[in-house]
Task: inverse folding
């Protein structure tokens, strides 16, 4: 492609939201887009969206997908890194080791395209966007669901899951130059089905601490996502149908990935319409 035609091509951005195991559906979304030749130029992720986004921009998505499809309860326990008497149920060191096994010591400068990871600072009560430095460290901060993972102390900050500030980082994609932004909200479907309501119909229903914390976090993210979508609307919103799956059910990866793929396929035509509109508008905007 010539430089002039490249300049006229609108940049596609994808904002990958947080949502624990539901975030595995991001893999299916990205696969479906690529099959249609819709390769994101700009990627931003929060929490598990940061994990999948990093795997994508560093060319490790196939490996991460293969690992996700192999996950069972024993593997989930191995990565749990349980601790007691501290400021989180899980330490997070095992997760970092797993991330580094795929990314090594990669920095944001090594990414093949603009990439950002979102966390939140408990001390300053503000959003923190990582676009430089070690990627694995940024992901560890972005994954820190309050009460489940210990916060990350860094440069005078106390960092936790970015979902409490920017659950689906559309605004970050815009800041990085995306002309068309696709947002993937993996928490929306569970809450549309009533949070835990579907589970409470069972007589043996006893939600554990992890499920309570994760579901509470999903409720917070959904409440934050709606007003942010009003002020920073995506061009296309994808909400995979994953609400029937418990948010820690990583062993159901094949089902979650397929749900993401199906949701993305439904959105393909809409994405192409927005890209074509942006292409036609771009000469006037840039001129």
Result:
């Amino acid at each position: 492609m010539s430089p002039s035609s490249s300049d006229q091509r609108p940049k596609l951005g994808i904002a990958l939201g947080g949502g624990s195991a539901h975030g595995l559906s991001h893999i299916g979304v990205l696969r479906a887009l690529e099959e249609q030749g819709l390769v994101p130029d700009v990627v931003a992720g929060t929490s598990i969206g940061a994990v999948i986004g990093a795997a994508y921009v560093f060319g490790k998505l196939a490996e991460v997908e293969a690992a996700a499809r192999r996950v069972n309860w024993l593997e989930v326990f191995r990565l749990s890194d349980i601790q007691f008497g501290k400021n989180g149920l899980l330490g997070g060191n095992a997760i970092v080791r797993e991330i580094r096994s795929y990314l090594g010591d990669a920095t944001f400068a090594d990414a093949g395209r603009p990439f950002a990871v979102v966390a939140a600072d408990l001390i300053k009560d503000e959003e923190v966007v990582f676009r430089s430095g070690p990627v694995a460290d940024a992901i560890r901060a972005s994954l820190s669901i309050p009460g489940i993972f210990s916060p990350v102390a860094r440069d005078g900050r106390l960092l936790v899951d970015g979902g409490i500030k920017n659950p689906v980082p559309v605004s970050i994609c815009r800041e990085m130059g995306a002309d068309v932004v696709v947002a993937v909200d993996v928490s929306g479907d569970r809450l549309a089905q009533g949070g835990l309501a579907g589970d409470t119909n069972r007589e043996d229903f006893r939600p554990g601490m992890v499920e309570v914390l994760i579901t509470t976090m999903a409720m917070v993210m959904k409440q934050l996502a709606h007003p942010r979508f009003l002020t920073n609307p995506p061009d296309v919103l994808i909400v995979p149908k994953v609400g029937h799956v418990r948010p820690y059910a990583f062993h159901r990866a094949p089902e979650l990935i397929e749900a993401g793929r199906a949701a993305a396929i439904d959105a393909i035509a809409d994405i192409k319409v927005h890209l074509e509109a942006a292409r036609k508008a771009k000469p006037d905007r840039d001129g």
User: Anything to note?
Assistant: Residues 253-286 form the longest helix (34 residues).
